[in-house]
Amino acid sequence: MPQSPTGPVPPAPARRPLSSSPSLLRAARENLQLLAEDLRTPSPSMDPLFSSSRRRWIRRLPYALAFLATSVLVPVTITVLTGVYGLNGALSGALAVAQAAPLLLAVTRPLQAWWIVFGADVVGAVALIGSAEVPGQSWPWTPPVIVGYLLLLLCLGLREPRRTLLAVWLVTGAAGLVFELVSQSRSDGSHVLLFVLSGVVLVITGALRERGDAQRRLAAQTTISAAERAQRTLLEERARIARELHDVVAHHMSVITVQADSAPYRIEGLPETAREEFGAIAASARESLTEMRRLLTVLRSEGAEGELTPQPGLSRVQQLVEATVRAGVPAELSLGVDPGAVPQAVDLSAYRIVQEALANVVRHAPGAVTGVSVTVDGPDLVVLVVNGAADSPDSPLESTGTGHGLVGMRERVRLTGGTLDTGPLPDGGFRVAARLPLVTPVTSEDDG
């Protein structure tokens, strides 16, 4: 589930847009109905505020602050209502608990807590209308009510959407205006103070919540984009390998076609059925070549005309090493296999693995001493490229890579049924080791 700074954020329920009816009265009525609906629809999240924080003390902070505020506001409210306003002790206690205790609920369900607190504040203001008028008394909202209400709005702004906050703010102002009209002689402007301060608190906390939500959505989109890029890279590498292998397969198919076509002329005394069979084999090979060319057209990307050149192999690894040396990377080659005896698919894969490994050395470890080894180990061809730490580790040509080279290596090794082992070395270098199974045995140069 997506996370925000205040906790996990499940998908918000669908809310109808505000009305833009041509009729002013009708639009106002419809919009008021929508705001009332928002007040009845709390956020679906029931997790505590800041529950997604990695720090334990931050996760517990809302509960600690809510408990502290409740512990202070309840006795202070009772003292103020009984001592300053002369209200009955039992009623004062009930109002104090109803106005302050829901702060504990606000940690997880702030909108439900707001309904309780707001109702208790209204009841308290009504109860204080008949109290003796004393200079300096605050009405309709007492100082403890203002403090507790603002703390509640702090939790509310961190959880609920913008329209709900707007509805709460308007209801707060409307209640103060009603009390102002009911008893103008008692009002001291506390309703205006609460209206302004509540607006400030809701704007700040709402902005913080929306900023956190925006960061969450951006992080989620970044994750999706990274996954899409990785998948696209994998598909591009597979398509490129398929285009290269086309030449290998086409060569074999061409050989089959030539052999089937020439068999009746090379072999004397063939029966007619055998001639027809060779003709069918040649026709099937030609059809397969045609289909492969069509497939290659689909796989070929724009600007890939240069791929018409013959595919390289181990016979050209020496040229790769020499080019790497000219690029400023001291490299050595140990070629312990006859390139002509290696199957073409393995030959091409081994060449590309060496090419990608040397390119990574040039990009990420310029000046590092590099060793390239291609040998035969039983039924496998072993390709090993090892480089030490770069002479200038603080100035690589690229500090980060796209990972295209490693993706290509893995795909080529997977294609031949081999294994690939890559990773950093203790001295700061890097190692690429590929083991590619050989379809047919090869003769090592060391064996003569």
From TrEMBL:
InterPro entries: HATPase_C_sf, HATPase_dom, Sensor_HK_TwoCompSys, Sig_transdc_His_kin_sub3_dim/P. Its EC number is 2.7.13.3. It comes from Streptomyces jumonjinensis. GO terms for molecular function: ATP binding; phosphorelay sensor kinase activity; protein dimerization activity. PANTHER family: NITRATE/NITRITE SENSOR PROTEIN NARX-RELATED (PTHR24421), NITRATE_NITRITE SENSOR PROTEIN NARQ (PTHR24421:SF10). Keywords: ATP-binding, Kinase, Membrane, Nucleotide-binding, Phosphoprotein, Transferase, Transmembrane, Transmembrane helix, Two-component regulatory system. The keyword Membrane applies. The chain crosses the membrane at residues 61-81, 87-106, 113-132, 138-158, 165-183, 189-208. It holds the Pfam family HisKA_3. Residues 1-21 are annotated as: Disordered. It is an enzyme of class 2 (transferase). This is histidine kinase. Residues 349-438 form the Histidine kinase/HSP90-like ATPase domain. One of its GO terms (cellular component) is membrane. It catalyses: ATP + protein L-histidine = ADP + protein N-phospho-L-histidine. Residues 237-302 form the Signal transduction histidine kinase subgroup 3 dimerisation and phosphoacceptor domain. SUPFAM superfamilies: ATPase domain of HSP90 chaperone/DNA topoisomerase II/histidine kinase (SSF55874).
